[in-house]
């Protein structure tokens, strides 16, 4: 029995959608903090801008780094490849090539590499979408 390309079982991302969704959520939370204006935050300690500013107690960056560091090498390579697909460096049809290259180049700090990408959360979501899947459908 042939499966359609839209069937979730057809696509092996090498990392669970739940894992990708967690990275997307943490990356977007971190991105939201970076986009706020520190001067505006000091004007009103209860403003949205102030609440989004990173504080010493805020663990968003550390949480994202730790989460990525705890993934195995294949999962880390898959995250890198998904970001590349989301950025347009590769298409879904080039998935195996992208994963292979990501695994080959993944010799250093994956968390730092990924966290230095602008709009990481969006890139990963777009990468997943290239396979007909959606991060938004993942239960959190």
SSE string, helices as H and strands as E: HHHHHHHH
How many strand units?
0
Instruction: Determine the number of helices (DSSP H or I, runs of at least 4 residues).
Output: 8
Q: Work out the count of structural domains.
A: 1
Shape: globular
Structural class computed from helices and strand pairing: mainly alpha
**What share of residues is helical?**
55-70%
The radius of gyration over CA amounts to: 17 Å
* Beta-strand residue fraction: under 5%
Distance between the termini: 33 Å
Low-confidence segments: 1-8
Overall pLDDT metric: 82
Q: Describe the sheet with the most strands.
A: none
Protein name: DUF3775 domain-containing protein
Pfam families: DUF3775
What does this entry look like structurally?
It is a single chain. The protein has 140 residues and is an all-alpha fold. The protein has one domain. Helix content is 58%, strand content 0%. It has eight helices and no strands. Helix 1 packs antiparallel against helix 8 and helix 5 packs across helix 8. The protein starts with 16 loop residues before the first helix and ends in an 11-residue tail after the last helix. This is DUF3775 domain-containing protein. Pfam families: DUF3775.
């Amino acid at each position: 029995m042939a499966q359609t390309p839209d069937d979730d079982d057809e696509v092996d991302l090498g990392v669970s959608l739940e894992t990708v969704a967690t990275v997307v959520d943490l990356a977007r939370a971190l991105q939201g903090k970076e986009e706020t204006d520190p001067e505006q935050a000091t004007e009103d300690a209860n403003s949205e801008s102030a609440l989004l500013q990173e504080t010493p107690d805020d663990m968003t960056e550390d949480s994202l780094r730790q989460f990525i560091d705890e993934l195995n090498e294949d999962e880390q390579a898959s995250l890198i490849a998904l970001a590349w697909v989301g950025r347009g460096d590769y298409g879904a049809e080039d998935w195996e090539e992208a994963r292979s290259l990501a695994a080959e180049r993944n010799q250093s700090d994956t968390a730092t590499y990924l966290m230095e990408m602008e709009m990481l959360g969006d890139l990963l979501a777009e990468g997943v979408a290239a396979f007909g899947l959606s991060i938004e459908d993942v239960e959190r």
